[in-house]
Every structure is written in structure tokens, then in C-alpha cells.
Amino acid sequence: MSQVIIYQNSNGGVSVCVPTGELPIETVLTKDCPPGAIIVDDATLPQGADSVFFDAWKLNGSTVTVDFPTAQAHKLRDFNAAAVQVAQKRQLNTLAGIANTPDDATFTTELTNGRAAIAAATTTAQLVAIANPV
Amino acid sequence: MAGTIVCDTIQDGAGNSTATDNAIYGSAKAWVRFNSSSGSSCTIQASYNVSSVTYISTGLYTINFTNAFVDTNYILTGSLGTGPGTQAGFFGFADTTNVPTTTSCSVYAVNGSNALANYTRISAAIFR
User: Fold this and answer.
1) Contact assessment for residue A8 and residue A59, using Cβ atoms and an 8 Å cutoff
2) At what angle do helices A68-95 and A104-120 cross, to 10 degrees?
3) Are B65 and B51 spatial neighbours (Cβ–Cβ below 8 Å)?
4) Can the peptide bond before residue A102 be classed as cis, meaning omega within 30 degrees of 0?
5) What is the DSSP letter of A44?
6) What are phi and psi of A89, to 5 degrees?
7) Rg for chain B, CA atoms, rounded
8) C-alpha angle with apex A88: A82 to A90, nearest 5 degrees?
9) pLDDT 10s digits, A15-54
């Protein structure tokens, strides 16, 4: 079981310091990390779908959890960013006289449904399962 | 056994030679390759003179050096890779997060959509 060092960073999130093995982890703790950082087994960190939302991690004592509203907001941000990319491609297609697939009405419905699914989600697994527009 | 060899030129058995400066200034003084695609952590695949890599947020990392540099006038080069069908990216100093110091530098990885992103293979080498 490998160990890492965690601490709350200035962004309010959790930083994970991974030693390369060149120095003992106790040395890395004092040399590379701020006061208050702690050594934990990496298996104790959020796994699976929770690990996808690293930017929504919060440190409570020595336990790392996912702040779900933040994860939800990040998923919506990424979904919308992907939607913008796809919308730009579709606009270029239209200018070039190329038919878009799916059609505009279906695409709009997919966006609406995706955003609704993000809003209705209650777990990170549900958020991960929602595909971004492609 | 400690000791010092002082010479201007290094030569191999075949007679190929190079100025010693090329070996001193042309070699990476630190390098690391890691995988940040797992979401929760970085996996260090190989390193030299790097004590740790800190995963700060998506696409943002700090490389900590085992032995400090003499100053901060080092250069960073690197590459990103994820796999077939994925976007190429850009890798560089993240000065706005952490100006390079003699003991560490922060780096970021940005994808083709100009968004911070994690990659399977992040390779960084520092020369001085």
C-alpha cells in the first residue's frame, strides 16, 4: 500500500504530494509540504467516481471527501464547455452547407436533458455517467 | 570514493569526443515522468533529482527537486500524451501559481481546447 501526503491548499482544495522514492516520505513531508500536511495511505483517498472530481475534494481532519455541490458545478461547467465546442462546429457546418447530425432540435433537447440530469444527480457516479456533448 | 576529475574533453573508446561543458550543461539536472490521468493522484513512473510531484488540481502540478538548483534560471521542457484520438496539449511553467524557486516549480498541462487537463504521460526535464 503506497503512501502520499495530503494538505489543504490555498485554493481550498486538497493537494496530493506523491513521493518519487528518492527520499523517505518523512523527509518529503518536511521538505516539500506545508505545516499541517499529513501522510496517508492512498487507498484511503476517494476512489472510483469520487476520484474523478478531484477538484471538489475537501479535507476534514485526516479524511478527504467530495463536496457534491462543487462536483455538480464542475460537471455542469465541463458539460457547457463541451457544448460550446460542439455548437461552434455545428455553426461552421451550417456556414459550409453541411447538414448537422443530429438536427438542431435534437441537439438542443440533448443539451437540455443533460443539464437536467446533472441538476438531478445525487451521486458522483451519476455525474460521471452523463456524457458531455460530442 | 569521492574525487574530482578535471578535464576539458571527454572521449569514448572509439575516439569520439566532446567538450566537458556539453556533459555538464547539456544534461538534464532533473526529470520526471508521471501519470495524472487516474483522477485522484499522480503515479510516478520514473524520475531523477525529483523528490515528489504534488497534484494541486486538474492539469496543475508542482515538481519538487531532491537537490536544489543554484538559481532559478533553469529551463523546462516537456511533453504530454494520453493516447490515440486525444488532443495534443501544451505544457509549461505555471508562474501565476508558483514562481519557480530553486527547490520547486509549478507546471500546467493544457489541452487543445485551452483547458487544464490531466494526461497519462507527462514528461518534464529541467536543464541548467
Assistant:
1) yes
2) 170
3) yes
4) yes
5) G
6) -65, -40
7) 17
8) 105
9) 999 999 999 999 999 999 999 999 999 999 999 999 999 9
State the ipTM, two decimals: 0.89
Q: Which residues pair with B91 in a beta bridge?
A: B109
Subunit contact B51:A33, Cβ cutoff 8 A: no
Among A15, A42, A85, select the one facing B54 at the smallest CB separation. Answer: A15
CB atoms within 10 A of CB B94: 21
Exposure of B23 by Cβ count < 10 A (0-12 exposed, 13-18 middle, 19+ buried)?
Answer: exposed
Q: Is the pTM of this model over 0.80?
A: yes
The C-alpha cell at A33 is 509540504
Q: List all residues 6 or more positions away from A123 whose beta carbon is below 8 Å from its beta carbon.
A: A49, A68
Residue of B37, B51, B102 to mutate when probing chain A, most A C-beta within 10 A:
B51
Instruction: At B11, list the grid cell.
Output: 572521449
Least CB–CB distance from A18: residue in B42, B49, B113? B42
pLDDT, chain B, mean = 90
Cβ-Cβ pairs closer than 8 A, A with B, add up to 88
Q: What span, in angstroms and rounded, lies between the C-alpha atoms of A122 and A57? A: 16
Residues of A in contact with B50 (CB under 8 A): 20, 22
